[in-house]
From TrEMBL:
UniProt KW Ubl conjugation keyword: no
Keyword Transport: no
Catalytic activity, as annotated: L-proline + a quinone = (S)-1-pyrroline-5-carboxylate + a quinol + H(+)
Phylogenetic placement of the source organism: Bacteria, Bacillati, Actinomycetota, Actinomycetes, Kitasatosporales
Protein name from the UniProt record: proline dehydrogenase
Organism: Streptomyces eurythermus
């Protein structure tokens, strides 16, 4: 399987240098990451929202090694919120954050990440929107869920992400569905050991459906993070059976993948949110997109052959 190999490459400085040096790489990266600065991304936000889509914004970058870098990540999100304030889009544009960017892996990282992310959540609430805490590898999740619970005391709209391939996730979904929180369900994109996660696609798909049923039948707000047409159809069926209205759940897909499907779902009245990343530290994010879907890797390789 190529996925684990690509994920390993995403942590390699040597591979980062090699891939970044290929002239065509930037052209392909632009498919998934449409800008490096807030100024770059504002026209994208305006274009997508004008088409009836919603967004969740991600400032890319995860390898934080100092508290100063974590503070800089916080400030990057605060700068984004400052720009969003002028657009007056409210909850149509939310934010997704990885707590690793806020210092979670450093000494005293749990407290540091909470201290850094809280001002971002506060600022988002002040302009009528919210923040979702992205899930990372399984060793970080207890900390992420604890921070999520703490933030929801003052900002109950704060969301979190759960990953279908982890054995623990059905229990997490039951707990979160009962609490009425906003929960994005994804398959999972990190290399996890067989002791904690399903390894086969059919097992992950089955788990995804089981967990999605829990969320749809619960009291929370499900966010379906998938590009899989079959899972999208199943989500619609489960929502109908649970008696949910179209504004009581939403679909989420990545910028640059299945754009026509984004517009189709929005045209049918569904809430369709596009996960849109930007920033200069794009390598790790880009490599995970290649690992998640073979078609993305084929797209990259064809581009290298035709334009490299």
């Amino acid at each position: 399987m190529l996925g684990p190999v690509i994920l390993a490459a995403s942590r390699s400085d040597r591979m980062r240098r090699l891939i970044s040096a290929v002239p065509v790489t930037k052209q392909v990266v632009d498919r998934f990451i449409p800008g490096e600065t807030v100024a770059d991304i504002v026209p994208i936000i305006e274009d997508l929202t004008a088409k009836g889509l919603e967004l969740t914004m991600d400032v890319v970058g995860e390898d934080i090694t100092t508290p100063e870098q974590a503070t800089a990540a916080r400030d990057a999100y605060l700068a984004l919120i400052d720009h969003l304030k002028g657009l007056e889009l409210g909850e149509k544009v939310e934010m997704s954050v990885k707590l690793s960017m806020f210092g979670q892996a450093l000494d005293g990282g749990h407290e540091l990440a909470l201290a850094n992310v809280r001002p971002v959540v506060e600022a988002a609430a002040a302009i009528g929107t919210t923040v979702t805490l992205d899930a990372e590898d399984h060793t970080t999740l207890d900390s992420m869920f604890a921070i999520h619970e703490e933030l929801r005391k003052d900002f109950p709209q704060t969301g979190c992400v759960i990953q279908a391939y982890l054995f623990r996730t059905e229990a997490d979904a039951r707990r979160l569905a009962e609490s009425g929180s906003r929960v994005r369900l994804v398959k999972g994109a990190y290399k996890e050991p067989a002791e904690v996660a399903y390894q086969q696609k059919h097992e992950i798909d089955k788990a995804y459906v089981r967990i999605l049923r829990i969320l749809m039948e619960g009291e929370g707000y499900p966010m379906i993070g998938s590009h899989d047409p079959r899972l999208i159809a199943i989500a619609q069926e489960l929502a109908h059976k649970a008696g949910r209205k179209l504004d009581e759940y939403e679909f989420q897909m990545l910028y640059g993948i299945r754009g026509e499907e984004h517009l189709r779902l929005a045209a049918e009245g569904h809430r369709m949110r596009v996960y849109t990343a930007y920033g200069t530290d794009w390598y790790g994010y880009f490599m995970r997109r290649l690992a998640e879907k073979p078609a993305n890797l084929r797209f990259f390789l064809r581009s290298m052959v035709s334009k490299g």
